Amino acid sequence: MVDLLIDRRASLAGLDGFCYFLGFAGEAFLFYFHLGGRPMVDTQIHLCLVVACVMCAVGAVLARWKSSNPIVSLVWSLSVTIHGTWFIHAGFLLYPPGMK
C-alpha cells in the first residue's frame, strides 16, 4: 500500500522507512516482554531476536536518513537477514536434529 502511494507521487516519501521502524520496534517490544518465566536458553534466544529487531529498527531509520552511505545499507541488510533467519537458528538450538 505504501509503495503504491509513493509510486503515485504522493507526498509520503519516507513513510516506508517509518513503517519498517514501527514494525520492527513493535516486534522488539512484544518479544522483550515475552521473555518472563522461560528457561534460560529460551530467554537468551529470544533476547537475540530482540537485539536483531532493534538493529533493524535503527537501521531502517538510518537507511532513510543516510541513504547514500553503503555501510548503513549493509548493516541494515545484515540485520534484516539475521532477523529473517532467526527461526531457523532458534529451531536448531532448541530442537537439534536427532533429538527425540
Q: How does this model look, in words?
A:
Helices cover 74% and strands 0% of the residues. The protein is built from five helices and no strands.
Question: Brief overview, please?
Answer:
Helices cover 74% and strands 0% of the residues. The protein has helices at residues 2-7, 15-32, 40-65, 70-84, 86-94.
Set down the secondary structure blueprint.
Elements: H1 2-7, H2 15-32, H3 40-65, H4 70-84, H5 86-94
Find the structural class using helix and strand composition: mainly alpha
Helix content: over 70%
Low-pLDDT stretches: none
Determine Rg (CA atoms, Å): 16 Å
In percent terms, what proportion of residues is strand? under 5%
User: What's the tally of helices?
Assistant: 5
Largest sheet: none
- Integer average pLDDT: 83
Q: CA-to-CA gap between the ends?
A: 45 Å
Number of strands: 0
Element pattern in H and E: HHHHH
The coarse silhouette is elongated
Key attributes of the depicted protein:
0% strand; single chain; 100 residues; mainly alpha
